[in-house]
Amino acid sequence: MSHETPLGSSAPHASCLDLWRERNDQLVRQAKVAQGLSLRRQQLAQDALEGLRELLHCLQVLETQEQLEPRLERGLSGLWDSVLHSSSLLPELLPALHHLAALQAALWLSTDHLGDLTLLLQTLNGSQSGTSEDLLLLLKTWNLPAEESDAPLTLQDARDLRDVLLTASAYRQGLQELITGRLSRALSSLQEAASGLCPQPVLVQVYTALGTCLRKMGSPQKALLYLVSALKGGSTWGPPLLEASRLYRQLGNTAAELESLELLVEALSIPHSSEAPQLLIEVELLLPPPDPALPFHSGTQSQAKYLLASRCLQTGRAEDAAEHYLDLLALLLDGSEPKFSPPPCPPGPCMPEMFLEAAAALIQAGRAQDALTVCEELLSRMSSLLPKMPQLWGDARKGTKESPHCPPWVSATYLLQGHAWVQLGAQKEAISEFSRCLELLFRATHKDKEQGPASNCDQGCTSDVALQQLRAAALISRGLGWVASGQDTKALQDFLLSVQMCPGNQDASFHLLQTLRRLDRRDEATALWWRLEAQTKLPQENATWSLPLYLETCLSWIRPHDHETLLEEFQTSLLEPRDL
Amino acid sequence: MVGLTPRVDYLAGFCCPLGGLAAGKPRMLCLGAEIFLSTGSELVYVYDRERGLLTAVYKFPGQVWHLELLALRRALYVLCARRGIYCLSLDQASRSVSQDDGDDKDDGDDGDSEDSQDGEPPSSVIPVDPDACVLPDATLCTFTVLDDVLITLAQGPTQWKMQLFKCPCPGEDPRPRGQIGEVELSTCIPPAGSPREPTAPHFLPVLCCVSPQGSRVLHSHLRGSGGFTLEETLFGLLFGADASLLESPVILCGLPDGHLCCVVLKTLVTSRLAPGDPKALVKILHHLEEPVVFIGALRTELLAEDVEESHSDCLVALGHHGRTLVMKASWDEAGNLVPVLREYCLPGPVLCAACGRGSCMYHSTPSDLCVVDLAWRGTPWDPTQPDGSPGGLPSLLCPTTLNVCSVVTLSVSPRAPEGGAELLALSAKGRLMTCRLDLNSETPCPTRVTAANTGQKIKEFLSGIFTVSERVSSLKKAVDQRNKALTCLNEAMNVSCALLSTEEGPRPISCTTTTSWSRLQLQDMLTATCLLENSSDFSLDQGWALCVQVLTSSRASELDLASSAVTYTIPVDRLGPGSRWEVTLPLGPGEDGVLDLPVTVSCTLFYSLREVVGGALIPSDSFNDPSLDEHSLDVLPEQEGICLPLSKHTVDMLQCLRFPSLATPHMQAPGPLSPASDPVDTFLGACLGPGSELAGPASLQAKYLPPSVAAIKMSVELLRATLGDSHSGVSLCCATLQWLLAENAAVDILRARALSSVQGVAPDGTDVHLIVREVVVTDLCLAGPIQAMEIQVESSSLANMCRAHHAVIGRMQAPPHTLRIREPAS
């Protein structure tokens, strides 16, 4: 902070003032010399600051001012108004007054009192600049009177402060406009911030914001240029890399997108270097607190890793996905003692779902055995929370129909285990896993919503739609298992149930159709065919509900490959007997 | 366990302030034979039990608020108020032993030894090097250590902030290697005033680290730092699947506002650029509605086999007033695993508490140290049991007294005797003692007296005497306070009976209200003076208050009378028999210059039970913590007390009229704009011009409209009867006017000048003219004309005319005797 003398002039004796000033100048010199990174120097600077603080307290006037502060908080703008409009303002006080105003402006900017700030600047600029409400314009046109040569030393002069204010408010304004979608204005504000005197970390943020802005405006090449300069500039690579991955995703360049994400993971694994405490008012101090909701908040390493893994799975790179998921689990679980690791960001899936996604990726990659291991690990880690089933369900004495509540992810684990067995060719084991899954799913009642304080995550993970799809998936999976082992009647039963469960799920209907045909139940097959035909002609209400990634993956395994051919084939076979 | 008698041994005495040690800040930790102790001052003592002496005393630059040990690293972490966290190496501590310290072994000293110790700490005080400060932060309120992570709780201006730091090792660069996580407990608002301010907070938050059973974190670390290992089931149920899967330790946090929340440690590692999202990271488990003073864990179920490591299966949180939350896993009727959270009530206020390895929790109040056993001796984990109470929790907690009082900090010693427990306790008088309990046997083993153990026996007796004497002095204080409260209550009952039993005639305690105009803060103000007169034989003491309710007429028309009135409560400060006491209150006009007449002033005597009985509810006043008093009083409802109505007085227009025209230099009646006003005020008044007091439509009306007039006629005969003899010697007109203005300060001038009409000024400055003349009413009665008195009220303001008219009517309707009573003595 900088220290002003005008208030000190109220000290009655000039000699006191001189003493005070001498000490002030000495401390300021000490602080300026001490700026640097070494610990010793920091200590020196800290001592200087402490000295300045004491000096401040010497001034009785300032002390009372400080006590009054809470009460004055509202009246401050009024005070400024009366001071600046006072007719008897001494010209020699002007530089100090402007300096003080710059400090006030910094305070108001950091506490979001933008209205007061605008008013203050308008008054300082005098009436000629008129009624401009533009903070940036006001800051730019702020004409600071020259400091007198014999003024006491200060740590940071008014001009320096004004430049800091200009950059900070340009960036704040740009962010605000970016969030509210006024892109062209955001662009100009951010460019203003970038052109100002800007410390490196802030410049990286500004360039990243520019990249986001340009991407949204549809200029990906320009955006890339900014992101590249951001990456060249600083040591915080997280935000620009994350933004680059979004940009490549928008451009459809999956390889580049995944590469950016990989780099992001690496960048985030580098620990933060602790920074020297700031002595002066810098742009960083005046920026709004970082907000995870902002588009270029890079998050933590495991969050990035998760993003990479799930994108790999979504884009069909199952092998990479499997590896990344395994890395992620290792990162989270085996985080050896001193190293704590975070799970992905809050809106992401909860831990059990991450295990399930890992298992799904492994199955997709053809590593069924590993998938089984992951599932078993999940179940064993959570075993203490699972109901002790045989012992409880065997208890007929109480005659309770209600079953223990079981989180949906437990059923999903059995479903994935079943599919792993399918891949391993063990139909019997697969069918038994699917049956366990179904048993749990159909016993789960919807009413146990009011759970203990812990289960909000478990509840939140799976919506009703997802639960319905999960049931259908389990039924179809078991049906396919029956088909594979040649038990068409049992398969028919499961497919029928799944159609009833999810009338909109066409996969279930196709499987049912095929089975009916195989069993030569022509009439039912025809009826179903007509219904399917009608359905396909209707505008597809697409599956817009977002399902958990592991369920999406699982559903893709049980999708019949040849919808069209099947329908056509059936049509011809259907029409033949009609012609007869 | 009824009648547990612990064996108490005194180890040492420590400096304590005159009023005794306050609870909340002292801390005590054990490591082997060493006891680390802070009494809430700036000293930290290291006491060696085996050698029976103080091995080191460290002096910190401020009050010590918290201690933690990291046994494996042999490091002691100390939170110094408004400074930050310091780290001391224990090896260094034992090296700087100074043996010639005479402060220990003062078992034989009598009670006044504390005073002698008061001024000067022991000689070998080692000032702590400022470089030992590993985390300078003035806002820290508490912390805990887990492995090499330092978890701190700081008080921000609006919220509590939890931060994680890499703990520095002793000998390393002392600065913490950096913050690795941060979250704000946004839902929990800290009490106003940050710890930067000189007054220390009454209650500090409590942190407790809980690890799941399978966690790879070494358990020895946890033990040392006051953490617990919890059974997987309860852990998963309370903290969620994520915490279980990550096998992450969880920080439980009990706040002074009663919130009990938890943070999964592994999720708290966030990038330094962004603090964590509190909604995702902080979960509120419960709200205890009183300051949380302790969090601990217990093993309540008996283990089936002899399992080596027993993990806690039950979490306990204790509130300051004794509200106790117990959390345990259980099966519900449908066979689902559910967490059971049950609240109990233990005697409070709780000064400190501790949990042992078993099922016992110890907690201390000013008057006693109690042990509560939460052991569940039913069949474990059997949902089929029809009568199994949920969670295997007892329906009631029965604390057993240990007959030790005023323990301000407790620690369960790791060196427990077989089948028992050993507690280390620090009493409010600064005495460090051990309490050995035999939890198994019902009767203490009789010991044969031999020459060898006679010395030991005598020592025990002496210890016993100290315990008893401390306890007696605390109980005596409580009894004295209760007696005092009873005496006060008796007095209050006497006063109430005296007041309520007199229905007719003068009451033993009366209150009369008079009004007058006076000049307060450059404004003319109508003030009411209530004179409380005690002519009874009893005195009004502490606890009595005079409540004066002022009800203005505009409010009187509204429905919610009680809430719109202004009530002044003035404590009566000892009003002995025969004494008087006067209270003067402003009635108006308010800032807007409006005085809504009539105003009703009701006086009531109120006796506050809270004030008198409340003191007796606190058993001891040795804990000079003002918050204790406030909180104990919550037992009594806010408005509890005795209410005795005394008088009701209506102030109307006739009482408030002023008569500047009558003012003579030597008369005291103040008029509006009396000459005593501020010259500047006078100047401004003059600048604004005449008539400026009236603004807006009122002034226009005054200028251009004829004044409103009302006349009331009253039969002369009736009037004579009403006035009685008092009018003798003056004309009936004058007497009538005097009668009307009897309660006005100007009545004496009226009487002296024998006026029958008068020009007055209403509170808002408009004129009010009263004219009394004799008239003959002819058209009213068939019997002939009636002699009547006409009272004419005239004012430029219709409202004031109405008010005056209303007041006149009120005089006529009042019962005759009240009129006479108010007749001034001439």
UniProtKB/TrEMBL annotation, chain A:
Coiled-coil region(s):
none
Give the matching PANTHER family.
Answer: FANCONI ANEMIA GROUP G PROTEIN (PTHR15254:SF2), FANCONI ANEMIA GROUP G PROTEIN FAMILY MEMBER (PTHR15254)
Return the Gene3D superfamilies for the record: Tetratricopeptide repeat domain
Q: What is this protein called?
A: Fanconi anemia group G protein isoform X2
Q: Which InterPro entries match?
A: FANCG, TPR-like_helical_dom_sf, TPR_rpt
Query: What gene codes for this chain?
Result: LOC101406869
Q: Which species? A: Ceratotherium simum simum (Southern white rhinoceros)
Which superkingdom heads the taxonomic lineage of this protein's source? Eukaryota
From TrEMBL, chain B:
Q: Where is this region: Disordered?
A: 96-130
**Pfam families referenced in this protein's UniProt entry, alphabetically:** FANCAA
Query: Where on the tree of life does the source sit, at the highest rank?
Result: Eukaryota
State the organism of origin. Answer: Ceratotherium simum simum
What residue spans carry the Acidic residues bias annotation? 100-118
Q: Which InterPro entries match?
A: Faap100
Q: What is this protein called?
A: Fanconi anemia core complex-associated protein 100 isoform X2
